[in-house]
Specification:
Length: 157
């Protein structure tokens, strides 16, 4: 398929990770990055049925630590990854499904503490390869997630 036939996404998009129960997380589309990465903390590895399972927590919304999602996935690998600052670290790799526009597909995702970073998730070139063309100017071409209704203190449910 030629690139002009592919849907266009911007440099940042809202995506869904249905396997983890994350209905909206803002991801930076980073074609300089090989794999995808997500902010994860309280990471715990345990063995179940001869398979390593990784349990972790995610704050899917930037600058918001009140919403926490607990997730788990089979550990695929441990890989050395070099950060943008040049620091190398061994990261855990899991597989999950990502949803952008009306498309869903499996991706590999490294787990790292991105608490101080601008985005909770990065979508690297392997995750979007042969699926999208990236326009580095606009944002949120896939749309914005529906706003959650919040109750004000003292209001009726």
């Amino acid at each position: 398929m030629k690139s002009h036939q592919l849907p266009v996404i911007g440099w940042r998009e809202w995506v869904t990770l249905p396997d983890f129960g994350i209905d909206a997380i803002k991801a930076k589309v980073d074609t300089g990055l090989r794999s995808a990465a997500i902010h994860a903390y309280d990471i715990d590895i345990h063995r179940r049925g001869g398979v390593d399972i990784v349990r972790f927590k995610v704050h899917p919304l930037q600058r918001n630590t009140t919403r926490t999602v607990e997730a788990q996935a089979r550990l695929l690998d441990r890989r050395p990854v070099r950060s943008s600052s040049g620091h190398a670290a061994l990261r855990l790799v899991v597989a999950t499904t990502v949803r952008v526009f009306d498309q869903s597909w499996p991706i590999e995702l490294t787990l790292s503490n991105r608490d101080e970073m601008g985005f909770r998730m990065l979508l690297g070139r392997q995750a979007i390869r042969r699926r999208f063309t990236v326009d580095p100017g606009p944002s949120y071409l896939t749309g914005k997630p529906p706003r959650r209704k919040t109750r004000r203190k003292g209001s009726k449910p």
